[in-house]
Design a protein that fits this description.
- With 456 residues, the chain is of the alpha/beta class.
- It has one domain (9-163, 229-448): Aldolase class I (TIM Barrel, Alpha-Beta Barrel).
- It has 12 helices and 14 strands.
- The strands form 4 sheets. It has an 8-stranded parallel barrel with strand order 1-2-5-8-9-10-11-14, surrounded by 5 helices. A two-stranded antiparallel ribbon has the order 3-4. The protein has a two-stranded antiparallel sheet with strand order 6-7.
- Helix 3 packs across helix 6, helix 9 (296-306) crosses helix 10 and helix 10 packs parallel to helix 11 (367-384).
- The structure holds phosphoenolpyruvate and cobalt (II) ion.
Length: 456
């Protein structure tokens, strides 16, 4: 398996979660069109992100990764994109000012259009159709036409990803990430929070720091610093990822330029599988979801395949154990990685192991379970002498009602009022900001300071 990698060598390996298209010629001609389009990101940005992720792995930065479970084509609208960016920037401002640590911001955005499914088909009233696999593949409506995997969606997804990132870049270059911008300080939700005084004090000290720095440098601090913002998505649909993979001039090797940080999902991380084969050959930093069935030997073997030279920043391990399992399943993995002196950036996804269904069948998660998994993860890393380098959330800037709990006091009975997600439930704006405050507090906790000896 070792040296004969090409962008298409994954085709020799069993691929889970792939799509069956009924017209292979149509698929091939679409992929050829895709491959000729300009990239969505550049290898320079990708390498810069890798450097920042390496810093997060050592505790010199903190990774904030978040966005929709499933981006939808209909949400490619200015106000929606603007709110997604706003909530991530607000969270990052809270983390920076609350903890003093630098932050690397990565959206699940501009390409998070493919979803793994537990069943390939769905049956309703005796009718069986292909499962919905994200807008990259088909549509949610339960009709044969909507559920047919249609290759034209690949081009549409690529185009919408490009439009999304174009708008994000314009907002950022126009000062949207500026800490003076009123958007950053719109914190009405604080009134409802359980500890409003503490939050208000933090916001006031953020304002004071900005005024102080402005005074020191004699002009707005925002003029000195660009806000970096990166994109990520699950690299699930390998034909699509391959079409966006190229060998940029003046670089060694291949980059998947559909996104900065592609990740391997929990269902496709098997070591002999096509996804691992594809990912091992690209030069991007990559994420790997690590669920409760992962064993230490398997993880070490995977790291050997994906990052044999231990390049810092190359691998972000995104643990998603669930609040009930994390204390048992995470320590052996963190310990094994530390003992083997493998260089990784550890991140906690406290969302995907904490999903449950209410009595009426609505998919939700509890704010308290999410926080409990983050807390346990901090403790595990502190115990082992390792570093929790970041967090991964499903969240939105909208006021949806998909997750119960938090200071906004959502209950299961409220879920129906603004539930939008077709796949997994997300933290709403207030819940996401509250989570950022709670994490900032933990990042300041003396127990969770990176030890200089910790490299894991
Ligand atoms: C996801 O991140 O939306 C997802 C499907 O996660 P996982 O692969 O961890 O289940
Ligand atoms: Co999800």
């Amino acid at each position: 398996m070792q040296n004969d990698w090409t962008p298409s060598s994954w085709k020799r390996f069993p691929a889970r979660q792939q799509v069956h298209y009924d017209d292979p010629a149509e698929l091939e001609s679409t992929l050829a069109k895709l491959a000729r389009l300009p990239p969505i990101v550049t290898s320079w940005e990708v390498e810069k992100l890798k450097t920042q992720l390496a810093e997060a792995g050592r505790g010199e930065r903190f990774l904030l990764q978040g966005g929709d479970c499933n981006e939808r084509f209909v949400d490619c609208q200015s106000n929606r994109i603007d709110k997604k960016l706003k909530v991530l920037l607000q969270m990052s401002a809270v983390l920076i000012y609350g903890s003093g640590r630098r932050v690397v911001r990565v959206g699940r955005i501009a390409g998070q259009y493919a979803k793994p499914r537990s069943e390939p088909t769905e049956t309703r009233d005796g009718v069986t159709l292909p499962a919905y696999r994200g807008d990259l593949v088909n549509r949610t409506e339960f009709t044969a036409a909507a559920r047919r995997p249609d290759p034209s969606n690949l081009l549409e997804a690529y185009g919408r990803s490009a439009m999304t990132i174009n708008f994000v870049r314009s907002l950022l270059s126009g000062g949207f990430g500026d800490v003076h911008h009123p958007e950053v300080w719109d914190l009405q939700w604080v009134e409802k929070a359980s500890e409003p005084d503490e939050y208000r004090a933090l916001v006031e000290s953020m304002r004071a720091s900005v005024r102080f720095l402005d005074a020191m440098v004699g002009r707005p601090v925002s003029e000195l610093a660009n806000v970096d913002f990166y994109t990520s998505h699950e690299g699930l649909h390998l034909d699509y990822e391959q079409a966006a993979t190229e060998h940029p001039p003046l670089r060694e090797g291949y980059y998947d330029l559909s996104t900065h940080l592609p990740w391997i999902g929990e269902r496709t991380r098997d070591i002999g599988g096509a996804h691992v084969e594809f990912f091992r050959g690209i030069r991007n930093p990559i994420g790997v979801k690590v669920g409760p069935t992962m064993e230490p030997e398997e993880l070490l073997a995977l790291l050997q395949v994906l990052n044999p030279d231990d390049e810092p920043g190359r691998i972000t391990l995104i643990a998603r154990m669930g609040a009930k399992k994390v204390a048992e399943r995470l320590p052996p993995l963190v310990e094994a990685v530390r003992r083997a002196e493998r260089v990784v950036t550890w991140c906690s996804d406290p969302m995907h192991g904490n999903t449950y269904k209410t009595a009426d069948g609505t998919k939700t998660r509890r704010f308290d379970d999410i926080l409990a998994e983050v807390d346990q993860s901090f403790l595990v890393h502190a115990d082992v002498g390792s570093v929790l380098g970041g967090v991964h959330f499903e969240l939105t800037g909208e006021n949806v009602t998909e997750i119960v709990g938090g200071s906004c006091g959502l209950t299961e009975a409220d879920l129906g009022s603004a539930y939008e997600s077709d796949v997994d439930p997300r933290l709403n704006h207030a819940q996401a900001l509250e989570m950022a405050f709670l994490i900032a507090r933990r990042l300041k906790d003396p127990r969770f300071q990176p030890r200089s000896a910790a490299v894991g």
